[in-house]
Amino acid sequence: MNAPLGDAPQSLTGLHVVDAEGTKVGKVQQVYRDDATNEPEWVTVRTGLFGMKETFIPLAGAQRSGDELHVPHAKATIKAAPRIDANGHLDPSEEAELYRHYGMTRPGGGGDEGDEPQ
Length: 118
Description:
Blueprint: E1 16-18, E2 24-34, E3 40-47, E4 53-58, E5 63-65, E6 68-70, H1 75-79, H2 92-101, E7 115-117
Parallel strand pairs: 1-6
Antiparallel strand pairs: 1-2, 2-3, 2-7, 3-4, 5-6
Protein name: PRC-barrel domain-containing protein
InterPro entries: Bac_photo_RC_H_C, PRC-brl_dom, PRC_barrel-like_sf
GO biological process, one term: photosynthesis, light reaction
């Protein structure tokens, strides 16, 4: 995974997420760590009408610039991500579904571990 370097996970919370085209998507709500490595792997951002949906975005390829977190995905792709409750733990099947949606493979080759918020 290529998470933003030098940042404690809690320092990502509140950053403005900017998509691959430079469009603001929303603010980082939660940071999820990989169970095996304890490294930040996912963030959630509020999307949808009135910000009622919390959507997962992988940190792979993300770069921090000031108060912005630039992700290599289009806003439409982010908004179309599978609906998964951001309420504590991301299980392996949910994580696999998200990686498929973003056209990615899980770093480290899969494993049975899920992710937990920081």
